[in-house]
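Can anyone check this?
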Amino acid sequence: MSNTRRLIGSLDGRWAILVIASLVFIHEAWAHGVAGQDQGFLMRSEGVHAGPFLYLGAKHMVTGYDHLLYLAGVIFYLRALADVVKFVSLFALGHSITLLFGVLAGININPYFIDAIIGLSICYKALENLATFRFVDPKIAVFGFGLVHGFGLSTKLQDLALSQDGLIANMIFFNVGVEIGQVIGLVVLFIGLSWLRDRPDFDSVSRNANIVFFGAGLLLFGMQAAGLFVN
């Protein structure tokens, strides 16, 4: 509890920055999902479209700030590439299971509810990095939150009433695209974090970065929770 109180106290001087940053991204966060033009293509497409679905899957991951924030937290302190592959593979496995199974089995969950949990996943990882608390083994947590992130996208895709013609193949291509986009995002994140670790003030910077992760996750949770009750 004392660690949590210290964390909350350290947030006081950073709330102004977080609020200003949130105003810049608030529209995108509220409307997070599949872009309007992409929605039109997905709703009209019939048959198998390998290239477009690969592209859209990769685009969703590269522009998915919530996924990237969580993954940044996951690999933040991982120095060995083997560890990065291990943790990210667990996330990808969970994400793939629920993305494919959710769409193909028609499991639809309120997107505001799922996105609120995704926001909490970012908060949890930030607190775990700050050594505030840990409920379960980090590998189990990463896999579990991967399941949640996958349901988030599968629910949004189902809202588009995708054609059953070629659906299985298209979802496989889409998921492969998501993993390609994830690799692209992780390469950039890993290079940036490797540079950051060479800084003499890494301990201070890393703590502040994870506090910002916590604030961003909390903001996302609050906005999606509000959307859940409003809608």
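Reply from J.R.: I decoded it. The longest helix spans residues 167-197.
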